[in-house]
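Before any further analysis, we paired sequence with structure tokens, yielding the entry below:
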Amino acid sequence: MDLPKLTAQIRAFAEARDWLPHHTPKNLVMAMSVEMAELLEHFQWLTPQQAEQLGRDPVRREPVEDEMADVLIYMLRLADVLGVDLERAIHAKMIKNALKHPAVPR
């Protein structure tokens, strides 16, 4: 996944629709929260086994993929607006996670 390329594509999409004035950090976080709730709806009331099988059902999987994409689109847009290098932030966070949660010896 080329995050800078995706970010530029998403920015161009928003610019072409004159959405940039509305893409404030607050609005983007709120929109992302709505999309997460829409994703959650697909899993609400499922057993763990049913949730795992959801990914194998093409009819039920497509709307889940759409919601996942919406969440990531808003995240990339938010990072763009805030000037956050998500690749760097992810790598730094993984290092912190590894220190906080050491691997279990096998």
